[in-house]
Every structure is written in C-alpha cells, then in structure tokens.
TrEMBL record:
CDD domains: PPM (cd16009). SUPFAM superfamilies: Alkaline phosphatase-like, DeoB insert domain-like. PANTHER family: PHOSPHOPENTOMUTASE. The lineage of its organism: Bacteria, Pseudomonadati, Pseudomonadota, Alphaproteobacteria, Hyphomicrobiales. This is Phosphopentomutase. Residues 3-397 form the Metalloenzyme domain. The gene is deoB. Signal peptide: none annotated.
Amino acid sequence: MARAFLFVLDSFGVGGAPDAASYGDEGADTLGHIAEFCAAGAADRAGLRAGPLQLPNMSALGLIEIARMASGNLPAGMEMPERLFGLHGAASEISRGKDTPSGHWEIAGVPVRFDWGYFPTEGDAFPEALVEELCARADLPGILGNCHASGTEIIERFGEDHIRSGKPICYTSSDSVFQVAAHETHFGLDRLYALCALLRDLLDPLNIGRVIARPFTGEKPGRFQRTGNRKDYSVPPPEPTLLDRLVTAGRTVHAVGKIGDIFAHQGTPREIKASGNEALMAAALRAMEEAQDGDLVFTNFVDFDMVYGHRRDVPGYAAALEQFDLWLPDVYRKLGPEDMVILTADHGCDPTWRGTDHTRERVPIMAFGPSIRSRNIGIRSTYADIGETVAAHLGLAPGPHGRSFL
Ligand SMILES: O=P(O)(O)O[C@H]1O[C@H](CO)[C@@H](O)[C@H]1O
Ligand SMILES: [Mn+2]
Ligand SMILES: [Mn+2]
C-alpha cells in the first residue's frame, strides 16, 4: 500500500486568485514578486544569497509552468528545466478567509464557507467587555496594544512597558486572530498559555478562529526575540477532515510542526514539534522513515510566512525557498515505489506587498513519486482537490468536497 507526504510551504502563493480584488490584493504574487526582485538584483544580501531565484528542483516539478498558469506571468530570471517530473497545477481557495486554518482545512477537504469574526482596524481592536472580563478572570492590571499590529514591531514598542507593568501585549491582524505577546520569564510561559486557553473560551461566541501565544525573551528594544514556544489555539474544523477520516480508517497521521495546533488536535494522533524550517524538514524526513503503509505525514513549514512573509523580507524569503529546494532530493530518496509527495501552500504572503498581512492568491500543487507520471492538472477550483487526491491515493472513500486529480 501507498503512503502520502503533504508539505505545506506556509504562504507560498503563486498569484492570480480570481477574487483577489475583494481582499485589496489584486496583483499580489508571492513567487512572482520574489523572482522579480531577485532577477533585478534587489534581493541580494551579503552572506545569504544573490542573483536570480534558483529553484531547480521545484522548477523540474513544474513551478514555472504553474506560475504561468496561475498568474499569467513567467517568474523573472528562473531557468526553464529540460524536462518535468510529476503532476503540476495550481488551486484557488473557496474558503472566505485567507488565514492558515482556512487554508489547511480546505487542503484537508473541508472548505470554510462561514465568515469568521474579525476585529476592527479603527479604535480599540477588542471589545471593552471582553477586556474587562479577561482582566478580572486572569487577574491582570490591564492590557497593552489592543490594535492591529505586526508581532515583531509591537514587542519593540511595548516590550519594556510589559515587563514593568505585567500587562500582556494583545494585538490582531487581518486574520481572525487574537494574539498575546508576553515575556517568557517575567510574565511566565505557563501563565501565558493559561491566559490563551481562557481567551479561547471567551472568544468562541465571537467566532474568532485562533488565539496565538507569542512568548518572547530579551530585556530591551533591539534585543527582544520571539521564541519557538509559540502556541496556537484554534477552533476545531467544522466537519471531519481528511485527518479524521484517516484515523477512523485505522491509519496514523504524523502531524509535524504546527499541524496539530491548526487542526485543534483532531485527527492528529502523533504530533511532532520542531522550530524552524531546517528542524521541521529533519523531523519530516524522520517521520517519513517511520510512517507505515496507508499513513500520512503532514508538515507545515511556517518560516516562509512567519519569519519572511509577514516581515516583508524578500531576500530572506528567497533564501528560504532556495534552501528548501535543495532538500527535495533527500525527500525523494525516502520514497517507496507507491509513495506520493505533494508540495503546496495555504495562502499568499507577498513580501513586496503593502502592510504585513497575508495576500489572497492561488497556491501551487506539485505532486511526485516514483510511480507518478508527469502531467498538467490545470487550475483546480478548490484546495480540497489536494485532500481528495491524498484520500484516493491512500484508498479512502471520496469525501463531500473536491475531486482527486489522480
Ligand atoms: O505579525 P505576527 O505576530 O507574526 O502575526 C502574523 O501571524 C499570524 C498567524 O499567521 C497572522 O495573523 C499575522 O498577524
Ligand atoms: Mn499560513
Ligand atoms: Mn501568517
């Protein structure tokens, strides 16, 4: 029997979402703009990388053709491969949110057709009654922030005040999210987690998708650093996902990185934590060795989004892609004759775009394995086709959303 390995390059969009304009994202193109900056010499960084974007392995898996199909543009400066391997295509998202849970759940066969709750961009972000209840129940002297913000900027701004006052830094973004930044030792990591768990309960009636704990260390601006102890408190998916279906069928889902958190720990009997793309890839490769016939290894590579996309760091994003590309032969070497790998993404986060939020884009689909012949699978109308393909590959009955491209 076969095994499946699903790798989500968090935020690696390829532009061209048909509904981008209604998100203010018309023209956003994570891959296209990174390639353009690289080709123009605008993504050189001493000691890190230089010149045109080099992704030879993903190009051989059809990435250049994917970009052309998805956005209408060829990524600048990238070299055309001599021949292609595997299935290649792109997918549009039908879930309304361009957030991580919506993207992952849709990949796992469950599009999100309802609207999440969001916090206002003007004035205080959080309702007064909520803040009062939070402070009373968690015995807090108040909160800092209470606005839309970039997570690294807001700890620079309020970090010292937070250490002095003991007030947690609370902020949001264009996602359905309540984020709490607090110092790992001055405030305490367990106390931060307890606060986020309490918030999770308080925010359910407002239909907020996620509460995120954002612990940091350091004593003053310029020295504050977020740690790998980030923790997401997601609401559970609205229907059984591919992961639940696999577990019901007696399979093991190996959830690497933040997959467990994203699925609210449903259908993730085995969770493997790692911080940083390199450690995540090492963990994924180990899980590939351990996976049995019929299993799924599902890995999220969060750095693309968290460390480079939201930070609008083009050279950093380009270097992370180039590094990831070099790991692909190691992935290939772990495959048995019936196995399949799918590389995809959950939304865009164009590092050249205004603001610091996600961007509505199509995502790439690159599927490969020793027994998978090269074929163009076109533009799929939902990410759910990815989950249905994994389901078909692993011998599950079809689910209610999406269609397998096998
Ligand atoms: O700016 P930071 O804290 O990285 O937050 C970003 O990360 C969150 C989850 O992806 C997004 O909602 C966005 O706000
Ligand atoms: Mn994401
Ligand atoms: Mn993000």
